[in-house]
Amino acid sequence: MAYVAIADRDHEQHLHDPDTFITKYVWSQDHKVIAIQYGGTAIAMGVIALALSLLMRLQIGFPDTFNITPYEYYQYVTMHGMIMVIYLLTALFLGGFGNYLIPLMCGARDMVFPYMNMLSFWVFLVACIILCISFFVPGGPTGAGWTLYPPQAILQGTPGVDWGIVLMLLSLAVFIVAFTMGGLNYVTTVLQARCRGMTLMRLPLSVWGIFVATILGLLAFPALLVAAIMMLLDRAIDTSFFMPSLLSMGEALDTQGGSPILFQHLFWFFGHPEVYIVALPAFGLVSDLLSTHARKNIFGYRMMVWAIIAIGALSFVVWAHHMYVSGMNPYFGFFFATTTLIIAVPTAIKVYNWVLTLWRGDLHFNLPMLWATGFIFTFVHGGLTGLFLGNVTVDLPLSDTYFVVGHFHMVMGVSPIMVLFGAIYHWFPKMTGKMPNKTLGTIHFWMTFLGTYAIYLPMHYVGILGMPRRYYAYGDTDFIPESAAIANEGITIAAIFVAVAQVIFFINIFYSMWKGKDSGPNPWRATTLEWQTPDTPPKHGNWGPELPEVHRWAYDYSVPGDDGDYIPQNHPIKPGEASVGA
Amino acid sequence: MAVALAVVLVVLVVGSLVYHFLSPWYFTEIASNWDLIDLTVDITFWVCGFVFVAVNLFTAYCVVKFRHRPGHKAHYEPESHKLEIGLTIFTSIGVAAMLAPGLIAWGDFVRVPEGAMQVEAVGKQWHWSYRFPGEDGQFGNTDVRQMTVDNPLGVDPSDPAGEDDIVVTQPIVHLPLDQDTHMLLRSSDVLHNFTVPQFRVKMDLVPGMVTYQWFRPTVEGTYEVLCEELCGIGHFAMRSKVVVQSRDAFETWLDAQPTFAETQDRPVGNPTRGATTYAVCLACHGAEGQGNQAMNAPKLAGQEPWYIRRQIANYQSGRRGTEDNIAVQMAAMAAVMTTPGVIEDVIAYIGTFPDEPAETTIVGDVDRGRGLYQTCALCHGDEGQGSWNANAPRLAGMSDWSLHRQLMKFKEPDPAARRGGHPDDIYGDQMNLMAVLLKDEAAISDVIAYINTLP
What we know:
The complex is a heterodimer.
Chain A: H1 2-10, H2 21-26, H3 31-61, H4 70-106, H5 114-133, H6 164-192, H7 205-237, E1 247-248, E2 251-252, H8 260-294, H9 301-314, H10 332-342, H11 344-358, H12 367-390, H13 392-398, H14 402-432, H15 438-465, H16 483-515
Antiparallel strand pairs in A: 1-2
Chain B: H1 2-22, H2 35-65, H3 81-110, E1 117-124, E2 127-132, E3 166-168, E4 172-176, E5 181-187, E6 192-195, E7 202-205, E8 211-215, E9 221-227, E10 239-245, H4 247-255, H5 260-264, H6 271-285, H7 305-317, H8 325-334, H9 340-350, H10 366-380, H11 400-411, H12 426-435, H13 441-451
Parallel strand pairs in B: 1-5, 4-10
Antiparallel strand pairs in B: 1-2, 2-3, 5-8, 6-7, 6-9, 9-10
């Protein structure tokens, strides 16, 4: 088998250890360093997006109080959304955790193409810089909404039409190049570089989630790339891909025959899988957190793998549920509502299996477990409201209201972030050799968990009430009672509260790196390979002279007849022991 | 920690239910035939609510019951086919229960009933207009390239079917009660969305194509129309109104609206005749429309004809004229111009005045004003020249003291004393939303100081 070939060959080869500071920490080809570079950059971008969300909320919660113009408001909305979805979530899950965990969990020394992996990060950094430059160009960043719908995105009347939109499209194109270089690595590494005995059905679910998400990304991002290029051409040399004949500010343009809806199809053909590009790694990581801290195998492993694959496949045939009221042929609604609700079934199975993993477990409420349990709550909430919006008829009154904002923040914002924090606390000891501070982490959890619910639960109801999203101000609107302003104030206060809580996270990270307790190699007593490395943090090449060999699946917790409550994957099967997932 | 987490989960579940049933925020009263949509929403709430409560309470139970205690060991059970298949079937039934009514209602929505009355809503940045097909029941062809100040909907003048189309350029449309209404949607620039929350349905307007929705209004009343697809900076201020009334009242209203042919046949103003009528205006606005601050009369010379026409109509219809004493005075004067012909004559006469920039009286911080004017420029133009397309009058070179007073009037908190406070004055209301950007009188002076620098 191909994967064995590479693994076998490895011990004959000399490892090219980096010898200077630059090659070790800057132009590093080590997946662990690249992971931290990716993660750190993504989190820095996330902090910008968080700040923008506060500015936006100040305007909605306390209109007339701050000097925020609609021009700026729409810029905040747009940049907040795009940064969070692409530059934080996608980059952190795949570039960060994908890079860190895939080689370690597969038992490989590094990614298959380390040099390309390094390039991937630096190109990603360029994409981030291009995007940040747009804050400083004349006219500022684009305010077209993160969906960048033309014709509006490239016409007068929208902020950033001179430079902002061009830089945004350029940045996305560069990001996609970076993602492709990383993504090819992740897929190839999972397929080709697993150590001896690591069959696909023995892979931890983290790897499965990241693996399938990467495949989705490789198939979906090209749609965004062509959309970005076509829009750049429309903007720069007056082509008409998305531009019908129209008036702009009262002047007839020379464009004709283009279709604005074509852009929406391309955007959402990327955009819906994108939801799962974020969600599937979260599903995978949280499965491993729950299993480890419940001291119990993940319930229904095989079903979980197939659910990931099924969700990934289905995610390519549901995109137009974002377009029920877009003016596309309304008969599409029947098809897309049906596929969308079908996707609820494998998703529900995943939820059941997480909960059933807790059932009859031995739950240790360490930091990662707190976040993982919080995720179950927020994801159930966000997933269920998706059934409202996916069901085409129910979408009619709710589309384009705050209900949508509440829904996608619960399912795609809060839930993955719960997993990300849980995962950071979980793998922090492996990355640094230190334990994160539990008190600080617990405070961080409660403030974030309760605070985000205080933001998003009322938001759903403000939406049901009929308040449209992307409104700078509401004025006197008869059907909106004055009490809705109180809801909006409360939401803004909760948002500030949650933002403050994130300061605690950074304090914890830096404090624990400096003064944290030594963690030892495997503080959570976990089974997967990354906890079995000879050094913590793992050195270049991960495994010392000998590659590990896997004998069992990733979830041998509390095996009957065994004295301890976990058996690492690289421990041989004992005589008479039944092996799962061979 | 485990007990605390379980308690919090239970509190959140119970709290969410209490919030759902007790908070004052829920759908506004329905005013259309789409009860089936509300029913589907209710079914979805029950099914999803059940799952939400069940899964989270079960989680809370597990969190307490199976928390770590010394000597406790987890149960080892890799999978249970029976349980997983049971749960799959159970979930599928729940999904089908929501999808079925949803698809049935959608089937009703995509098929417009026969005999539905056609109305067209036309959106542009950031205004609504409407069109009825007229007696022949057929809309005339349209083309955005035909759109001009005198043909704002771009109806093709060479298409005979368009002649009797009824053109409603005021952003208020009337609809008859209990009449199936097939609302065709057309945009001249970017995406928009026609939403009346009380009707429950919505659909985007897409330039280059005609989209639709249908509904049957079932409750008399006046409802706000919102644009719900981001369409640029003025998106939030793109408002309109639907008046649902008895068929008789509707017919009366419709009869009073001009056909397309009539709008193209507007009497040509005669400046000589206009001079006679202008004698009434002259006392305050000056012999050459130069304005007179002492008389509270702004400059007229150089103002866009369509804007003067609209303001006279506003005074005559009562949309303006009660907000303050000066407006009361003007309303009385506007009443003198009794026919469209007289109005056109006066406008033609004003058009003959030399257009000298008005004397400036306001001082302010020009640099700050330039920043503030960015937003204004989208409609009023980079040089304050005004735009018929955006329904925005000329500002540059006009009486700055009047501009100052009007901005203050737009910001007036009391609706009775506010310009734009009249429920039918939608363009005024739009300025109410925009004037909020000028936080105080200093900001107003700054922006006017900048406008004064424009050519």
